[in-house]
Design goal:
This protein has about 260 residues and is of the alpha+beta class. The chain has helices spanning about 5-85, 100-125, 205-215, and strands at about 90-95, 95-100, 130, 135-145, 150-165, 170-180, 180-205, 230-240, 250. Helix 1 crosses helix 2 (about 100-125).
């Protein structure tokens, strides 16, 4: 019995499709193996660079946090003084005190961050070196290890560059590994520093302040009894590193990418 031409054609197509699939899978396997071997071969070159570059970004964050901690209470006070002069300020009960209502709370956050960014910008010159419209921190690390009578030396030189844009900071650390005094592999790790809420700070609303706020039309959910004070809980904010550990390391060819600062 002879198979029909259509059946022979279908069988031929099936065989061809199977063959092509096997070829594609083999090519993928070879490609993955090649990439894996390349990554493994270069792993020892850049794994230390990545960790050190992240540490450079963290160092910049620490300097900013130290400057912020010295100013945080004053910034919160100035932000509150500005919020309470607005035509409408709302309060809600929180624990045994009061908190700003949703809209006033959003405004307080905006004003706090605006003032904090202005203060930090003004103080960055004392923490970093000025580089046009950005700031830089240059640092290095030398390590020597003795193993079985042999000495292994590594030398690293890095520059952490920081700039303020709107309500956040952008930064990166560029680090070189030196081999026998000559610059070898260069790596860059980017990062971004945002604002995050950490909790509350308590301030006292005395009878005089409450009276003035009421005179300006502010409505309290309740009034203090026998001239007692209110405790107002205001949001506290701090700086937090984001993205630094998520962005893939770039082995650079010496060209810097443009920032949006």
């Amino acid at each position: 019995m002879h198979a029909s031409k259509s059946r022979r054609g279908s069988a031929y197509i099936s065989v061809l499709a199977t063959t092509m699939l096997i070829i594609v899978l083999a090519a993928i396997a070879l490609s993955v193996t090649t990439v894996s071997r390349r990554i493994t071969a270069r792993y020892s070159d850049y794994i230390g660079l990545y960790d050190l570059a992240v540490a450079g970004n963290e160092q910049a964050l620490l300097l900013l946090l130290q400057a912020l901690d010295a100013r945080r209470a004053d910034i919160s006070r100035r932000a509150w003084l500005e919020v309470k002069t607005w035509d409408y300020v709302s309060f809600v009960h929180l624990n045994n005190g009061l908190s700003l209502g949703a809209s006033s709370r959003d405004e307080f956050r905006r004003i706090f961050i605006e003032k904090a960014m202005a203060d930090l910008r003004a103080s960055m010159g004392s923490m970093f070196s000025r580089y046009f419209f950005k700031y830089q921190l240059t640092w290095g690390l030398d390590a020597t290890i003795g193993i079985d009578g042999h000495t292994v030396s590594d030398s690293y030189r890095a520059v952490t560059t920081l700039c303020a844009a709107a309500n956040r900071f952008h930064l990166d650390t560029v680090i070189h590994r030196y081999i026998d005094g000559e610059p070898g592999i260069q790596a860059i790790v980017d990062a971004s520093i945002n604002w995050t809420r950490t909790g509350y700070m308590a301030i006292i609303l005395d009878a005089y302040t409450i009276y003035n706020l009421e005179s300006d039309g502010v409505e309290f959910p309740s009034l203090p009894i026998n001239g007692e004070n209110f405790i107002l809980f205001l949001d506290e904010f701090t700086l937090e590193m984001v993205e630094s550990l998520r962005l893939q390391i770039r082995i650079s060819d010496g060209r810097r990418e443009a920032w949006g600062c």
